[in-house]
Structure formats: structure tokens, C-alpha cells
Amino acid sequence: MHLMNSELFTLTYGALVTQLCKDYENDEDVNKQLDKMGYNIGVRLIEDFLARSNVGRCHDFRETADVIAKIAFKMYLGITPSITNWSPGGDEFSLILENNPLVDFVELPDNHSSLIYSNLLCGVLRGALEMVQMAVDVKFVQDTLKGDSVTEIRMKFIRRIEDNLPAGEE
Amino acid sequence: MADEALFLLLHSEMVAGLYRAAEQGEGENGRCITKLENMGFRVGQGLIERFTKDTARFKDELDIMKFICKDFWTTVFKKQIDNLRTNHQGIYVLQDNKFRLLTQMSAGKQYLEHAPKYLAFTCGLIRGGLSNLGIKSIVTAEVSTMPACKFQVMIQKM
Lengths: 170, 158
What we know:
The structure holds two protein chains of two kinds. A four-stranded antiparallel β-sheet of chain A has the order 1-2-4-3, with helices on one face. Chain A is built from four helices and four strands; from the N terminus they run H-H-H-E-E-H-E-E. Chain A starts with a helix and ends in a 10-residue tail after the last strand. Chain A is of the alpha+beta class. The model of chain A has no long low-confidence stretch (mean pLDDT 91). Chain A has one domain: Trafficking protein particle complex subunit 3 (Muramoyl-pentapeptide Carboxypeptidase, domain 2), CATH 3.30.1380.20. In chain A, a hairpin with a 7-residue loop joins strand 1 (82-84) and strand 2 (92-97). Chain B is α+β, with helices and mostly antiparallel strands. In chain B, 44% of the residues lie in helices and 15% in strands. Chain B has helices spanning 4-23, 32-51, 61-77, 120-132; strands at 83-86, 91-96, 137-142, 149-155. A four-stranded antiparallel β-sheet of chain B has the order 1-2-4-3, with helices on one face. In chain B, strand 3 (137-142) and strand 4 form a beta hairpin. In chain B, helix 2 crosses helix 4 (120-132). Chain B starts with a helix and ends with a strand. The interface between A and B is medium-sized, with 35 and 32 residues. Chain A: This is Trafficking protein particle complex subunit.
């Protein structure tokens, strides 16, 4: 039963990406769309996350990284990415995904070489963190779908969002 | 294992995203329901393929419908279909009194017109699942009071 559940998510995500590839002419637009949808999911998912995880306020970006990798990824995707490649300033790190559940049954056709298949994840992380006053930049730098040995998501802290400002985007 | 909350949010954002794009004239206009239905169809096909790998062969059509109402529905929506009715001539009505993809919406009547958007994916899901079990069908849905809904399956004889 559990297995089936993860397949439901993976297959549904796959159907979405396939549909977007039909709707938009170039991969960049699909990437943008996936990021936007991810953002909208992230801003709502954070509420569920805070309610269920009992995680308190993070004191620094390292703690945030830990919470994302060990609690959030585990809770929602059943995997625990490792955290590596910290920048000297401690404002940038990488999440290494050995197995990305989103790509379980996926192969990229040749004519979609610029497609960032799992780009939804970047949007989710950006959206969720924005709701806890952190502006971050999130992008894929390695992807097993493109022949890399692991999937790597790079996260960069940009700034703290002041409480009294409305959330910036969309 | 992916979490249910994530699936629910993905589904509602899929609906919202398609409609947003159609309004802005991106993508093709006005075919959102069909697109959602087609996406569901693909997912239904894939799921049933993996799910029936180790199950015994089905006796007949009714046996397949029961499987959809129990096992299939439980894995996808965490509950069984509440009522299955048939005229024994190829029409089945599956009633879910608390349909998972509608429970997050307000029950007020003013949202009733938006309900079809949130049912199209599931219509496709049923049609896709049945199609992979060798049954060609047309699936439609209707809501009279949220969050209850009925899916009507019309078997197409080949």
C-alpha cells in the first residue's frame, strides 16, 4: 500500500510535466511553470509542516538545512538528502539526492534537453521558506536524468524578509 | 513514500495552474477539464498496472468494479467507495459520501460550480484503470451536496 502511494504522487507529477510539455513550446517555459506551481504549493505546505513536525524557530541557516533534509524531505518524499558543499560564509549549501522519487519511471527524450524535470521542488522550497521570512535562491546543479551520478539542489540564502512586508512574489 | 498532503496540494495546484494558464491565454484555451481527465487517465493506467501485478485474475466485470471501489479507492483516497450500484447493463454508479479531493473545499453552494474541476482528474483515473483491465468506458461525475459525489461509469461494449 505504501508503495502505491508514492507511485500515485510520482505518476501524477509525471502526467503534469507531460501536459506542460505539450502546452508550452519551450523547456524554459515549462521550467518556469513548474517553479511557479511549486512556489504555490510551498506557501501552503509550510503550514502543514509546522503543524505536524513541531519544529521550532531555526537559529541559523545550518539548522534550516538540517530541518529541510532530515525532517521535511523525510516527511513528504520519504528520503533524506545529505547536506554538503557549504560555502565558507555558511549561506549556501547543497542537498544531494541519491534517489529522487519524482523521476522513478522517467527518461528524458532528446528534444527536452533543457527541461529541469523536478523543478517543482525548487519552487516548493522557495515558497515554504518565504513563509518563514527567508528569501532563498534554489536551483538544480546536477541531475541524474541528465547523466550526473547524483541529483544536487543548491540553496542560497539571500536575505531575511522583514515581518511587516507582504510576501514578495506572485 | 510520498505524503498524502503533498498529493492533495499537487492536485489542487494542477487544477489552479491549468486554469490560470488558460485565462492568461498561455497554452491552449478552454480545454482544462479534458487535460485534467487525460492526466488522470495516464496515472490510472500506470497505477493499475503496478497494483494488479500480484493479484488474482478477475472473475468478471462486477469483480473488477468491486476492486476499483475497494482496493484502488483505498490506496488513492484512504477510504472505500460508500455505495456501488449497477443496472447490470453496463452502467455503474460509484458513490463517495466524503470525497477526498472535495473535503478541503467549503461546503457552501456557491462553490458547487467549481466542483467539476476537482473531479475531472479522478474520472480519468477510473477510466485509465479500467482501460488497463480491458474495459473501455466513459466516466462522468456529479456533485449535489459537497463533499459527496457520484461517479457514473458507462461501459462501452467493444
